[in-house]
Write a structure and sequence with these properties.
With 307 residues, the protein is α/β, with parallel strands linked by helices. Helices cover 37% and strands 21% of the residues. A 5-stranded mixed β-sheet has the order 4-3-5-12-6, with helices on one face. Strands 9-8-10-7-11 form a 5-stranded mixed β-sheet, covered by helices on one side.
């Protein structure tokens, strides 16, 4: 199969827009005879006359009318691809970005991020959607611009990831709860009535794995689907919630938090995006905003992406 000359797309776009060989020739700075030869090649390639004589002018065939919008978009896309990325004017930027995050991220970082974006690019709108699974399809299909995650094997191999901060689990109870006083031990912690947060489709997780070698099992009073729900229940009862420290900072205000008496691995929360947005200036700017906001809350150093 012979590969068509893609340069003919520009010629076809101009011909269909002008509806005249002479006008198209002037626009492309070609001679009328050169443009006529190009039209002949287009007719041979497409198998359609494209433009036919009608009185003293030319009219487009049905096939040409069908192609006009598609060809124009193809030429525009190709021009955009081949044009060097320009430095954006943030004050004039008009764009919406969708960020998919676990609950707690918006409550702790959202206000500062929105304020930073509004100050630098008032025409930019942020849309936050809840992350219910680890499927990276929304990044691939473009319905999501950025997302936060603990990176694992379920993300697509092509997805870019940049560490934002380290986090750890901690216990939380209401003020005045018996566990708010005295030394915390594995046995005291396990003896409480617990709220399980089932993010992985199971009510068993890292906490239970850490208690098992000690011969301890925490009684699960209820299972919920998110950390904010767990904290709301713990605030209004004698139940014990176990949640990420940094992800739930603001949500834990007015409650008693304590370090877990068992060894549970820390984890890294990362920022994810698709490679097609890697060089996009506006997207790069937003990534920098997210990293800066998280860095302002960061207790340990995380190397940032080089410009």
């Amino acid at each position: 199969m012979v590969t068509p000359d893609l340069n003919l797309l520009v010629t076809l776009d101009v011909l269909l827009a002008e509806g005249s060989v002479a006008n198209a020739a002037r626009r492309l700075r070609l001679s009328p005879s050169a443009m006529s030869r190009a039209l002949a090649r287009l007719r041979e390639t497409t198998g359609d006359p494209l433009l036919v004589r009608a009185g003293r002018g030319l009219v487009a065939t049905p096939r040409a009318l069908e192609l006009r919008g598609r060809v124009g978009q193809l030429v525009q896309d190709a021009t955009t691809v081949l044009r060097p990325a320009e430095k954006i004017n943030l004050l004039q930027l008009e764009r919406s970005f969708t960020l998919r995050t676990r609950e707690g991220f918006v409550e702790n970082f959202g206000a500062q991020l929105i304020a930073r974006v509004a100050e630098q690019a008032p025409g930019v709108r942020l849309c936050f959607v809840q992350k219910l699974d680890k499927d990276s399809a929304p990044l691939r299909d473009g319905s999501v611009d950025l997302e936060t995650a603990v990176v694992g094997v379920t993300e697509g191999p092509e997805v870019h990831a940049q560490a934002l901060f380290r986090d750890r689990f901690m216990g939380v109870v209401r003020m005045g709860h018996p566990l708010a006083q005295g030394k915390m031990t594995p046995a005291r912690y396990a003896a409480g009535r617990h709220i399980s947060v089932a993010l992985r489709g199971s009510d068993k997780g890292l906490i239970d794995e850490a208690l098992f070698p000690l011969g301890l099992v925490r009684p699960i009073a209820t299972t919920v689907g998110g950390f904010s729900t767990a904290l709301a229940l713990a605030r209004a009862s004698d139940l014990v919630a176990t949640v990420p420290e940094r992800h739930t900072g603001n949500l834990r205000d007015g409650m008693h938090s304590f370090a877990l008496p068992v060894a549970v691995p820390e984890f890294t929360v990362s920022l994810l995006w698709h490679p097609r947005l890697q060089a996009d200036p506006a997207h790069r700017w937003l990534r920098e905003c997210v990293r800066d906001i998280c860095a302002e809350h960061r207790e340990d150093g995380v190397r940032r992406e080089s410009p």
